[in-house]
Design brief:
With 82 residues, this protein is mainly α. The chain folds into 2 domains: 49 residues; 33 residues, no CATH class. Helices cover 80% and strands 0% of the residues. It contains 5 helices and no strands. Helix 1 packs antiparallel against helix 2. The longest helix is centred in the middle third of the chain and has 25 residues. The two termini are 31 Å apart.
Length: 82
């Protein structure tokens, strides 16, 4: 997640590079942590997850490229399913 990258950058700047003091770190990090918590909470409400999203996307794109042929050669039941 993008927010986790932001959090890692803030930590790196504070802990490794010492580019900010504790107050600045807390001011920047706390909202990111809260946002991450909210994102994870909302995602958990979805329940189901996709085990291989890349494969699903690839198959969907492949199917969409053949959609006009599938539509033209399919029966009404298949078309209703679309």
């Amino acid at each position: 997640m993008e927010i986790e990258k932001d959090m890692a950058t803030i930590k790196k700047n504070f802990l490794v590079k010492e580019l900010m003091n504790q107050a600045t770190f807390d001011e920047l990090y706390k909202p990111c942590d809260e946002q991450r918590t909210n994102i994870l909470k909302e995602l958990s409400k979805l329940g189901k997850t996709i085990s291989n999203p890349s494969e699903i996307i690839a198959k969907t794109v492949q199917f969409c490229t053949k959609l006009n042929t599938a539509w033209a050669s399919s029966d009404i039941a298949f078309k209703d399913g679309l």
